[in-house]
Amino acid sequence: MGRISRLVELTFPEYRDRHIFTTKLRIAIFIGFWVLYLYFLKDVLSQTKVITGIICVSSFLTGIAYYNVVVRNKLLLLSFSVEMIADLVTMTCVIYLTGGPYSNYFTIYFFYCFAAGVFYNHYLAGIVALFCIMFYGAFLLLCNWGIIPPLILNYGDSLPIPTYTPLAHFFFTVVFIGLAIYAVKIASFFSQKRERMLEARNIELEGLHEKLREVNEQLREANRVKSEFLAIMSHELRTPLTAIIGFSELLMEGVLGDLTDEQKDSIQEVLNNGADLLELINSLLDLSKIDSGKMRFEIHPFDMSEMVDRVSRMISSLIQRKEHDFTVSIQKDLPAIMGDERKLQRVLLNLISNAIKFTPDKGMIKVWVKFFPSIESMKTESWYEKIKNIQDRYSEGIFCIGVEDNGVGIKSEHLDIVFDLFQQADSSVTRSYGGTGLGLALAKQYIEQHNGIIWAESEYGKGAKFFVLLPRIAKLDAVKGDSINSVA
């Protein structure tokens, strides 16, 4: 019932407040009705006991409904239904008393629909109109079939007071006009009230919009300071780290004297961790450059198959160490791709390194590259929906690169965050395998700089698939870096 009440409040705004005004109108109508009723039918009240009882019951039910709405604020939809039916029964009784099927006062139905519209809205007016038609139609049919008998009152020696004289019509016209003016007044009141509320709300929103502009400026400045800090710290950290790596290499080469096997193992650990730290620093530096728009791109045509072969050789020792089943499938006669070869090579290296890291020994890793020369040739692919609304970018063809493994996989709820900066899909897993969450974030930045798309698919525990879509020609105006070199 709570949901129904909420629906009523949304459909009929200020439902309870409007009822307070309609209560005043109903009281006036109620008093006026009984004054007229007693005036016109004072000599034959004993013959209209049934009708009088029906009207009294309807008035009583209306009072209960108003109590539920105005006082208790409960059972709103049921109360509305009771009110409407009670009103229609009362109005039909009035028509029956003033001539039945031949009464001119069927116009009270019109005012009832009008009042519903101006007090609330046209939806309620439509519902009320439908029920008015149903009630009046049923009343006419029941009178025509004789189920409701004609009202014949015996006034004895006295004459009935006619309800159809010009004076009576004038009186009812004045009453209806007065009620219409009251209804319009109330509708105007709520309209002005809503306008004042909207005006106050607009002033509040305008204040928030200034405030938001200030916050945005502060965030922009904070982001600039953060980018500068990362760039400075990356440079400052890289200098001593380079020295550490250099001296460690000298020690390994025996330039400073012979080392024992245990010493060599320790120095090798220094080199390995130093290389990891240098890669982290370089990634941070690149991300800060991209964020500040200072990343330099070298755009030139290159052979995708050669790049894949080069990356395969670079990671061959890691593959052999874990005895992975590593396969590469490259489509024959690939055209040259226009892009930054070094950065795209780094993307592929990151993806394959991730696959190696999260795939157990003797696991499977596949790398494949395909080229689609036209939009038509892409439409049968499952990923076509991802480029459907931006297919103009790929009108000159698209490269699709895939890296697939049967490792630990990624949980479905983490697929959307694996490319976020410093995000790791599952900390319990990444603690075992290492990683900072920068590799995939940097890969995503590089791919998007080339107007491409990257995403992951996985079934947890059964491996992961990473897909990259790249246009054959990276549009120079689409690359966001401040410095772009293009080699034809």
Fold blueprint:
Blueprint: H1 2-11, H2 15-41, H3 49-72, H4 76-97, H5 108-119, H6 122-144, H7 166-252, H8 261-292, E1 296-302, H9 304-314, H10 316-322, E2 325-330, E3 337-339, H11 341-357, E4 364-372, H12 375-378, H13 384-387, E5 398-405, H14 427-433, H15 439-449, E6 453-458, E7 464-471, E8 483-486
Parallel strand pairs: 1-8, 2-4
Antiparallel strand pairs: 1-3, 4-5, 5-7, 6-7
Helix pairs in contact: 2-3, 3-4, 4-6, 5-6, 5-7, 7-8, 9-11, 11-15
Kindly state the number of beta strands: 8
Report the CATH architecture of the largest domain.
Answer: 2-Layer Sandwich
- Give the strand content: 5-15%
**What is the rounded Rg?**
41 Å
Per DSSP, the total helix count is 15
Please tell me what the overall shape is: elongated
Looking across the biggest beta sheet, what order are the strands in? Answer: 2-4-5-7-6
Helix-residue proportion: 55-70%
User: Termini distance?
Assistant: 71 Å
Q: What is the CATH topology descriptor of the largest domain? A: Heat Shock Protein 90
Helix/strand order, N-terminal first: HHHHHHHHEHHEEHEHHEHHEEE
Describe the sheet with the most strands. Answer: 5 strands, mixed
Uncertain segments are 477-488
Assigned CATH class of the largest domain: Alpha Beta
The CATH homologous superfamily of the largest domain is named Histidine kinase-like ATPase, C-terminal domain
Oligomer: single chain
Classification by helices and strands: alpha/beta
Q: In the residues, how many domains can be counted?
A: 2
Mean pLDDT, to the nearest integer, reads 79
